């Protein structure tokens, strides 16, 4: 198993890939993230972020997540159809991450716009089942 995980065929880092993996096709500033890194590079960047996710900090983070979820629900229309993917699932991670990073509220829309490609959900034919996310608001 260790040999398999160390093989460049399994690389998540397009710089290390021997198969032509292109990453997530994001702008370079967004493409250089933990999801696209391997080995020492991944460990170094993960160690920088690790303290932000300690058990001591979880209660405050939980509150940010809860507040963000409630605010997004409050923005949904009171009646009619709601696209859960577009109206809730896509904005949610960027809002939470932006708030956890301490961005001012007036900068969150710009952060969301920049981060949107990372959180975009596949709505092509390959991801056709996700388009069934339209539900009535009751």
Number of helices: 7
Q: Total number of β-strand segments?
A: 2
| Rounded average pLDDT | 75
Terminal residue distance: 49 Å
Could you walk me through the main structural features you see in this protein, from its secondary elements to its overall organization?
With 138 residues, the chain is mainly alpha-helical. The protein contains 7 helices and 2 strands; from the N terminus they run ααααβαααβ. It has a two-stranded antiparallel sheet. The radius of gyration is 18 Å and the shape is globular. The model is unreliable at 126-135 (pLDDT under 50).
Question: What's the arrangement of secondary structure elements?
Answer:
Elements (H helix, E strand, L loop, with lengths): L1 H5 L21 H4 L7 H12 L7 H18 L5 E3 H6 L1 H10 L7 H12 L14 E3 L2
């Amino acid at each position: 198993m260790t040999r398999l995980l160390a093989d460049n065929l399994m690389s998540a880092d397009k710089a290390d890939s021997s198969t032509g993996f292109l990453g997530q096709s994001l702008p370079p500033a967004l493409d250089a993230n933990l999801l696209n890194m391997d080995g020492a590079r991944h460990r170094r960047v993960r160690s920088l972020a690790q303290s932000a996710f300690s058990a001591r900090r979880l209660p405050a983070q939980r509150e940010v997540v809860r507040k963000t979820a409630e605010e997004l629900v409050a923005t949904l229309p009171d009646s009619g159809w709601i696209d859960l993917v577009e109206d809730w699932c896509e904005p949610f991670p960027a809002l939470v991450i932006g708030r956890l990073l301490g961005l001012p509220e007036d900068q969150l829309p710009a952060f969301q716009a920049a981060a949107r490609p990372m959180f975009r959900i596949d709505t092509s034919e390959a991801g056709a089942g996700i388009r069934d996310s339209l539900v009535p608001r009751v």
